């Protein structure tokens, strides 16, 4: 069997640096955590081979894992959809309707560049029913429900954190939409204006559908962001109360480093990896085609 | 030829420099979560001044990040020379990487070196050692008790004395709430403070019982554990803890409220004294003028125990790869030498080494508090604040949150702990 | 339902910058008017002011009998075709055509009743389910026109609609536009910088420069009787020749001008009467220059640089004695000539005279 030798080797030569980096930084760790996931291992000393025991335990006897799964199911749709809608609205109002000064743009984006640690501490304080901003407002206005202990209640805590996450990243969605809107021809909007299309109709029927590529990007980033969520939970609730706000990365961290179950944490990481890969492939294959812009139908 | 000559010179020169560096300075690296970096840097100065030829390189992290750092370094074969340790699980996890420290202690303080330490420190240092292993994988540096504190001006304002019974606690809760204070300020979002309170409750209900459960002699579902759990729950229901306590972290959430003078009492430990030593202390913390420690009230009515819970705050182990002598010099200096004195001067926590005392007190109250801790309380400590198994610890902390949130009954909560105990054993 | 349109003393200021100055203009019902001028002359701004996309700083705009100066664009009964066509890229041709109607709440049947005849008139039926990205430039142009037509506007505005098309398509679309206007007869304002488009399409041309109207007139008026040197230069291709002239003598009925090469030239006396020694410009179109039969008799001489033979017509490019460029057009040149210089005959009745400010000096009579 003969290949056109020079093209093969030449191509490979050019690919080599990327392949080497990919192997070192992606393949090796991926295989390593899969291997480590087969052991009962504290991360330091000799592990005990348990086969698929860790995986078996994850799927059959791990309450916090399933809470983390449930929370991801709350987290992704809620943050993605609400963030998209709010980010779009703000972008639309700033960009298309009022052309407000960049100061506002910066203000809305500010939370996205503040460290999640700071945001977690500040919002924990805002939610604190003992002297927190929200409860003070509640007392001052008579809106007593604001004095509720949102973070202390296992039913509401995850939503309280999701609200903060939405608040933090809304500005990022806004920025993405502003960038998208910059790409929309001014004349199209003027045409809509001449056609007597109302502002609301322009937003819904003209601008929103023209930004499909931005929607897709935000959905992709939102799903990835959900699976990577860590610092906000870590600072605000530590996954509590009683794992009510557990997210997979937080749970992996707790298992691996706090509880010295590195083998189990590795198995959880494998699950996370498979989940991420599966979702990415799903999005590119299924949503990708539908979300592509202007191409042949 | 010329080139060769040059490179030979270079090698010779570098050899000289290397040799002189060896002769002058041995660098000892320390990584830990404790003491705080400002204190550590002062200790480094004192120790480097006291021991010629030693350079100390220190870095601190928050506790969880430190665990990540330590594990990564251990796996990479780059263990720091000396490392901060907690007795029990953490020390046992790194046992294979640590050199026994008793030889070091004996070389400095003689064969009766153990008598230089508070008994609890010696006892707890080997927590979790396999049976027959009498090695000290670390030497205790700081110790602590866990207890309650009150804010002096707040209690004066309320006209109340520190509560000694559950009824007095309830009376305090009512008065404090009416005046806009937190009766007992807790950041119960943090597992460790939940556990600290529970440890004191169970110590009131049945002293020593929990350690029997750890040894498998008593089930975790024993009614006495449930009773302590019920009291814990009552403290939420009766408004003794401030509202929303489960949603707040102890540091910095609760501490901020405490330092702003809005808390009547709060669970903490001997280490609270260190608030006086930070840069720009708050008025209440300055010279510890605004705070006083008190024992957990008798919540069962069967009489409060005389002893407090406590143990080792931080101990330090020597890496097997370290220059043992140099590491030993630094370690022992930090326990009982110039470095230790600097450490104790900052009120970071109580010493493990008997007889150390801050050189300067800012107020009579500060001195009185110190003496109470070191002379009255610390010598009484019999039982550890810590639990041996990380899984059980975690399960207890989870159960406390679940019960406080009303998701589980006290019985169900203790069943969670039992389950974790069972799975950790098998 | 169509209407004329009137602008009265219209101004546009952006802060301190005035881009349109005192424009007054009346456009008749069904008239096709072209705004033409170099880029930056304010023609697009003026169009957008009529559309309502730019505010009118001062002055009034009347469409039909109604003052529309401050009316919302959508209520002015105008439609506009943009340079980029501004189609909605995510909608099909059908969607684009019917969008405005759907949004104003008309029923599906009503929309179809209005869209279908327009689609048929513009031959868009076969394209109805395509997206704009699947259309050629000319097709997009037709969709844009169709979208405007569907709204049955009183006034039709075009903003450089052909500038994104290639030359061949541009000629074709020009013809289509002219026919369309003939068919539907809507009052149309069309902006272009291309004088050929202006000449071929317009009933009347408005020449703009620096935000002001230089001249309004039919294409032939502007060609044959420009008010100033700018209009003379802008209209006509190749460009009109400008020959510097100095007044040598002012007689009772005529002027004696000195042209480059110390040539004397007689021109009917204009009003106002110029002074001896004044510098003027004599302008004559290339097609109105001729070769002098008798080269000896004091004719202006042209140094020929090169000839361009297009068959039916040939152009000679060269310069006069003072270096001024000059173009000569000749019909039906039979054989090539390599004569280095030519004598030019200038017919005074075909030549325009302008003063140094560029204003036309028309002969008295």
Task: Give a concise summary.
The complex is a heterotrimer of chains A (297), B (426) and C (365). Chain A has 297 residues and is mainly α.
Could you walk me through the main structural features you see in this protein, from its secondary elements to its overall organization?
Chain A has 297 residues and is an all-alpha fold. Chain A contains 13 helices and two strands; from the N terminus they run αββαααααααααααα. A two-stranded antiparallel ribbon of chain A has the order 1-2. In chain A, strand 1 (39-40) and strand 2 form a beta hairpin. Mean pLDDT of chain A is 88; it is low at 289-297. Chain B is α/β, with parallel strands linked by helices. Chain B is 48% helix and 14% strand. In chain B, helix 9 (191-205) crosses helix 11. The relative contact order of chain B is 0.17. Chain C is α+β, with helices and mostly antiparallel strands. Chain C has helices at residues 43-51, 93-103, 108-121, 137-150, 167-184, 195-201, 219-224, 229-234, and strands at residues 5-14, 17-27, 32-36, 58-63, 66-67, 78-81, 155-159, 187-192, 204-209, 212-217, 241-250, 254-259, 263-268, 279-284, 289-291, 300-309, 313-319, 325-331, 341-346, 352-354. Chain C starts with a strand and ends in an 11-residue tail after the last strand. Chains in contact: A-B, A-C. Chains A and B meet through helix 5 and helix 12 of A and helix 3, helix 12 and helix 16 of B.
